[in-house]
Amino acid sequence: MQSRHTASTVLYREVKRKLLARIESQRWGPGQTLPRESDLAQSFGVSIGTLRRAVDELVHEHVLIRRQGKGTFVAQHSRDRFLFQFFHVEPRGDWPLQPVQRAAEFPRVETLAFERERADETCAAALRLRIGDPVFVVQNRLSLSGQPVTHDVICISAALFKGLTEKRFLERAGTVYQLYQAEFGITVLRAEERARAMPASRQAARVLGVPQGSPLLEVHRLALSFGGRPVEYRVSTISTRMHDYLSTMG
């Protein structure tokens, strides 16, 4: 026999699953307002408390956004969200005596290459593709205050982003993740990252303007959408001469 607590947990998770399904199907698109909590609770046949518990979790996971006095909205990618959630490079400053303010500067992004290639073993494994499947590989250089700090190599499935061209990529109105969401209906919800120290390769030295062999930070990111589906594999090589990689917890 299920306990009351167990039954409640099962119920709110079912409500969360149904909300996610409606968001993923774009019944409520990015930036749109959800119906009132009372209406949603009634449509799911649950209490407002159960509905609110599911919504709270989706807010915590950056799927939804609450705006005081305005309602609950489907999260939409923006420059601010990119800086807050996905860009972690900061000027070193005098930390921890004088912590640097987060999101003080949006990086200047230069696209160095846009190619249609065949997935290698690493990219295929990350994106759950077959080796040799068509992919787009993009190289970007990100600079802060005129100083190159990051070299990104991005791999995405050509089948998933059907119709993407270099012109379309270069002429995007916002961030890369805004492009994914607005034009392809693919929302990056979160990312898993692994970091390691690496000596600067000849290419990294040229792109970032550092001596070959100098220490760099290499961050491997797997961007995930609904249901943990991988949509982008990115390798970021970061110059740490004047910048740190900031991880905020809690």
Q: Uncertain spans, ≥5 residues at pLDDT below 50?
A: none
The CATH class name of the largest domain reads Alpha Beta
Mean pLDDT: 88
Tell me the total number of β-strands: 10
What is the annotated CATH architecture of the largest domain? 3-Layer(aba) Sandwich
Q: Could you spell the SSE succession in H and E letters? A: HHHEEHEEHEEHHEHEEE
> What level of helicity do the residues show?
25-40%
Question: Can I get a quick summary?
Answer:
The chain is an alpha+beta fold and 250 residues long. The protein is 31% helix and 30% strand. The chain starts with a helix and ends in a 5-residue tail after the last strand.
Describe the structure.
The protein has 250 residues and is of the alpha+beta class. The chain folds into two domains: 4-74, Winged helix-like DNA-binding domain superfamily/Winged helix DNA-binding domain (Arc Repressor Mutant, subunit A), CATH 1.10.10; 79-245, Chorismate lyase-like (Chorismate lyase), CATH 3.40.1410.10. The protein has helices spanning 4-24, 37-44, 48-60, 79-86, 121-127, 166-170, 176-184, 202-208, and strands spanning 64-67, 71-74, 89-91, 108-118, 134-144, 147-157, 190-199, 215-224, 230-238, 243-245. The strands form three sheets. Strands 4-5-6-9-8-7 form a six-stranded antiparallel β-sheet. It has a two-stranded antiparallel sheet with strand order 1-2.
